[in-house]
Amino acid sequence: xxxxxxxxxxxxxxxxxxxxxxxxxxxxxxxxxxxxxxxxxxxxxxxxxxxxxxxxxxxxxxxxxxxxxxxxxxxxxxxxxxxxxxxxxxxxxxxxxxxxxxxxxxxxxxxxxxxxxxxxxxxxxxxxxxxxxxxxxxxxxxxxxxxxxxxxxxxxxxxxxxxxxx
Length: 166
What we know:
Structural class: mainly alpha
Largest sheet: none
Number of helices: 7
Shape: globular
Radius of gyration: 15 Å
Helix content: 55-70%
Order of helices and strands: HHHHHHH
């Protein structure tokens, strides 16, 4: 087993515990909830195998679902984002970049990383809250949850990236 596996496993456990024990208890204004665990999928390197990223995402999602009592919602949403991430990250990394280039603030630059992370977080929140509510009868609350959670999550991800960079 490589050191990369153990780093990913450590990040997996840290994000799972942070989400399950702390962040699931936060509901700003009754709708905005930080969903920091999507950070793991955002951070997969450029050449990381698609099957491995989808497996990590599914395992993290189903673990979060166990903590949050949302049967399969996080797993389905996170796996879908992990399926799209390898194609989407190619838009923000130069064509001549190495295959092991990580999608981090340092490698991509502040603007590109912010747009990249914001888009994936917004996509994740759209999927998550659509599957969770499974209706559009209360459209205003759905929009508030998607936008509020996306904003709160992206602020946490950018903060974590800036701390990790130093």
